[in-house]
Write a structure and sequence with these properties.
The complex is a heterodimer of chains A (about 140) and B (about 400).
Chain A: H1 16-21, E1 28-32, E2 38-39, E3 54-58, E4 62-71, E5 85-92, E6 96-102, H2 108-111, E7 117-125, E8 128-135
Chain B: E1 8-15, H1 27-42, E2 51-53, H2 66-70, E3 76-78, H3 86-99, E4 105-112, H4 133-138, H5 145-160, H6 164-178, H7 182-190, H8 201-205, E5 209-211, E6 214-215, E7 225-233, H9 234-237, E8 245-255, H10 268-279, E9 288-291, H11 296-305, H12 314-318, E10 332-333, H13 338-341, H14 349-361, E11 373-381, E12 387-396
Parallel strand pairs in B: 2-3, 2-4, 9-10, 9-11
Antiparallel strand pairs in B: 1-7, 1-8, 4-7, 5-6, 8-12, 11-12
Helix pairs in contact in B: 6-11
Classes of the chains: A mainly beta (about 140), B alpha/beta (about 400).
């Protein structure tokens, strides 16, 4: 039994709203109304200024591969059956850097290039969806 | 060097010799064995200790229990726990406490049974999520610890043209030193390393890939182990047994993921200049560099951040074996064999201090001739995301 990818909880105080929005396949992020700082991961306060209020925005789901690794060995009951797979930092066009997986490729060790364009793809689960990326185009 | 303040010194050290205790000792028992031996090394006893420094790795809220366990009456209790660099933080804090007169003899201990417990530190999944926002946003990815560091390596390669062959220099230098350290050789035997010998660049880059671009021989071992360090004020130092190793500079910092941060720069870029500035020395003057070698890329990044070479030039700079104890042109790196080839029970920071002290006393198995200055740099947490850096500069008496 491979089990499931470890899923986030919907009621974590800082990031719950982000995950609840994934049910409609919205990739939400926060930006400060006062100083325009983009906040990632979600939290209730601006890290750029003391008194700004944060507003939620939706990403168009395009970004650039900042860095990645291909996991060849994992003892995790789910991920051990997924190897080799790519973990990556993606610089999303709206200005935040998300940790995710790059999927939709046959051989992650040869097909990925730092700087390449990627697009959002949702992995569907009950009650929420997981934001992953695949090569754009 | 006359302007340096010499208020506190490492006066006692001990490294637990076994890397596989076969489940017969607890972490607290390992800490205790190490504490007794380090105090004996200093010519001090339990009753001299008035400062306890602990990373709470043996038990939660250790500050509540350790004094009782050892029968002490400390005036300073510090349980800073920031991962593998905790012990460099402890030295920094002990230096301040001793300067302020709040304690005179600080005891740092570490004990771990990571190997006996079969902890999959490097390739286990990260938590099951839900503890805090960062965990809740990252745990679904399946990022192993090795792949976290590997992402730094890939970015370094992309930005600067660094190669696996260059990174392998870190592994071959530490193994070169390990083969001169009987405890390290026995550790590799007990942990069932295959083909224990000095390695070549080819050996490293042809070893199995664990998480691209990091190969098996670029990853540290998972051992049991422990250690202790005793730091004393200058007036206590006069009565200790061995030559004191002076703490002449300290810096601490943290770094975490940001939207535009440079993954190739560690928290060491902040802690390093503070420590070197306090000591009044530069990287070029350092004889021995004890740098946390969780992985090859950790060392390469930190060498740059500490100013041994410019950012991005580390790959070229380490080429040619200059990190070996008997080669000129660079500091001797991890002369005990490092986490890669001697001892890594999860939080290696204390061993950096112990081997640096051995070198400045002239007691290392890969002794640098007339070693005068050493840096011990711990990295805690994960280099590719949130981590801490503690830099300690040490000077011979």
């Amino acid at each position: 039994m491979a089990g499931s990818r470890p899923l986030p909880t919907l009621d974590e105080p800082d990031s719950g709203e982000f995950w609840r929005a994934t049910t409609t396949k919205e990739l939400k992020f926060q930006r400060c109304d006062s100083c325009a700082t983009t906040i990632w991961y979600p939290r209730p306060h601006c890290t750029g200024c003391l008194d700004g209020t944060l507003a939620w925005h939706s990403s168009n789901g395009f970004g650039t591969l900042y860095s990645y690794s291909v996991v060849r060995q994992s003892y995790h009951p789910f991920f051990r059956n997924l190897v080799p797979y790519a973990v990556a930092y993606v610089d999303v066009d709206e200005g935040f850097r998300i940790l995710t997986n790059v999927v939709g490729i046959e051989d992650p060790s040869t097909e990925l290039k730092i700087g390449q364009r990627l697009q959002l793809v949702w992995e569907e689960h009950e009650g929420l969806n997981i934001p992953l990326f695949e090569p754009a185009g | 060097m006359s302007s340096q303040k010499r208020d506190a010194a490492i006066v006692g050290i001990y490294e637990y010799p076994d890397r596989d205790v076969d489940g017969e000792l607890s972490p607290l028992q390992i800490k205790t064995v190490c504490a007794r031996n380090a105090l004996a090394d200093a010519g001090l006893s339990w009753s001299d200790v008035d400062g306890i420094y602990d990373a709470s790795e043996g038990l939660a809220m250790s500050g509540l229990f350790l004094a009782e366990y050892w029968g002490l009456a400390p005036t300073v209790i510090d349980t800073t726990g920031v991962g593998g660099s905790s012990y460099e933080f402890h030295v920094a804090h002990a230096l301040s406490a001793i300067r302020e007169g709040r304690c005179k003899v600080a005891l740092l201990t570490y004990g771990s049974t990571a190997h006996s417990n079969r902890m999959a530190i490097g390739v286990g999944g990260r938590g099951m999520g839900g503890i805090n926002a960062a965990d809740n946003m990252e745990s679904f990815v399946g990022q192993t610890l090795v792949s976290n560091y590997a992402m730094v390596a890939h970015r370094h390669m992309h930005q600067y043209g660094t190669t696996s062959e260059q990174l392998a220099e870190i592994s071959t230098a530490t193994r070169y030193h390990a083969m001169r350290n009987p405890d390290a050789v026995r550790a590799m035997e007990d942990l069932e390393f295959i083909d224990i010998r000095e390695t070549t660049i080819d050996d490293v880059v042809n070893s199995r890939m664990i998480a691209d671009p990091l190969h098996l021989l670029e990853c540290c071992m998972i051992s049991d182990g422990g250690g202790a360090v005793v730091i004393a004020s200058s007036d206590v130092v006069r009565n200790t047994k061995k030559s004191p190793v002076w703490v002449i500079g300290a810096g601490e910092a943290t770094k975490y993921p940001t939207n535009t941060g440079d993954l190739t720069v560690s928290a060491g870029a902040q802690s390093g200049p503070v420590a070197f500035g306090e000591a009044g020395v530069t990287a070029a003057e350092i004889d021995v560099a004890m740098i946390y070698d969780s992985f090859s890329i950790t060392v390469l990044t930190i060498l740059e951040d500490l100013g041994f070479c410019a950012k991005g030039e580390g790959g070229v700079w380490v080429t040619g074996g200059k990190l070996r104890f008997d080669q000129a042109g660079g500091p001797a790196l991890n002369t005990d064999g490092g986490g890669l080839s001697s001892n890594h029970p999860g939080m290696r920071g204390i061993f950096l201090l112990i081997e640096a002290a051995r070198q400045l006393r002239g007691e290392s198995m890969a002794q640098v001739v007339n070693a005068q200055l050493a840096v011990a740099h711990g990295n805690g947490g994960m280099l590719g995301s949130r981590h801490t850096a503690g830099t300690i500069i040490l000077g011979a008496d």
